[in-house]
Amino acid sequence: MKEESERVHYSLNFKLYAQDKFFGPGVARLLRKVDETASLRSAAADLKIAYSKAWNMIRTAEKSLGYDLLIKKVGGKHGGGAQLTPEGRAMLDKYTAFEKAIYQSADVMWGKIFPEFAVTGSDTLAPQVETTEHASIGVGAILMASGFSRRMGYNKLLLNLGEGNVAEYILDQIQRQRYAAVTVVSQYAEILEMARQRGFLSVMNKQADEGKSSSIRLGLKAMAKIEEIKGYIFFTGDQILLSDELLERLRNTFITHPDKIIYPEYEGKFGSPVIFPADMAPELVSLKEEQGGRFVADQHSDRLLPVPVQPGWQGLDFDCPEDWEKVRQLWNYRKQDNGKHLDKE
Fold it and tell me: What are phi and psi of 20, to 5 degrees?
């Protein structure tokens, strides 16, 4: 079998032109970051582009469109800021919807025309799309963030990580996947506010003491009327070692096998996050107390489809300070070498 980096895949890049290019993935990414940070300067810094270049991208798009994309705020305690105009938000939404529709068609045609690249041997390897601007067609994401973190002694999702905290890191990773919809279920107001800032559905869990089944139930009910969702992926919030490439593999495998329960297999063991077909929602909603998706999966062994994962430590989570120290060190090491060595161990 070929190494992951050698897999045949495809990439699409959507750009809008008048006389010259004025809107594409870069501008869309910048607008999303402005919407998140409420500042063009902060957005540019986060994306590692010069502030002057960011301004030029916005001005070029505004000139071609004939209207403002941003409302600029001058001065103030933090040096001013910016937010999307109604027209700017509508333009971003239209571009995203167009992009999503094109990827949906492309994914289907990829599987039909190049089936040899979608499945190799016993491993399901659907196309890996290089850009993170596409929408994960038909997959809704549910982040279960209602745990009490009793063994940690404090809310583990608010632990410092990088330039933010664990919850922010997980939310940003989920956002990069461009799922069809994202719902965050939590008993913590600060986490729900982080979700709202990223445009996600947020659901207050007042039944958190009932166990993880309450988050599953509330998340599914919040997205029950979104017809385009064909499957649900469940995140626990404390798996900071998951790679974007793994999440893409899970999603693409589901697109190829939408009737299967897609799960990562870490060193031969069932792991998370898992994608369940939408027809299993009634069973998931019926779970009790601390029952999780594994309970449902065990009832449908004929529908299980593993995605082998290397290295297996990507599936590690943490429930106590000792676990956190181990996971945090792995996260730091991988960040330092961009995963070039650790991801092959």
Answer: -130, 170
What is the DSSP secondary-structure string of 117-159? HHEETTEE-----S-S-S-EEEEEEEEEE----TTTTS-GGGS
Interval 132-136 mean pLDDT: 42
Residue 235's region, left for phi above 0, alpha for psi from -120 to 50, else beta, is beta
What the chain holds in terms of domains, given with CATH numbers, is 1-115 (1.10.10.10), 136-344 (3.90.550.10)
What would the two tokens of residue 308 be? 């082998």
| Nearest in space to 28 (alpha carbons), one of 131, 156, 108 | 131
Report the C-alpha gap between 175 and 157 in whole angstroms: 17
What does DSSP say about strands 119-120 and 123-124: parallel, antiparallel, or unpaired? Answer: antiparallel
Are 158 and 167 spatial neighbours (Cβ–Cβ below 8 Å)?
yes
Look at residue 147 and tell me whether its pLDDT is greater than 70: yes
Residue 250 vs residues 76, 162, 222, 305: alpha-carbon distances, Å: 45, 26, 23, 10
What pLDDT is attached to residue 338?
Answer: 53
> What's the full length of the chain, in residues?
345
Give the position of tokens 């207050």.
Answer: 204
Residue 163 burial (C-beta neighbours within 10 Å; 0-12, 13-18, 19+):
exposed
Cα-Cα-Cα-Cα torsion 129, 135, 140, 144, nearest 10 degrees, comes to 80
Q: 231-235 and 274-277 as β-strands: parallel, antiparallel, unpaired?
A: antiparallel
Confidence of residue 5 (pLDDT cuts 50, 70, 90): very low
d(CA 206, CA 320): 24
Whether the predicted pLDDT of 246 surpasses 50: yes
**Cα–Cα dist 186/195, whole Å:** 10
pTM above 0.85, yes or no: no
d(CA 34, CA 52): 15
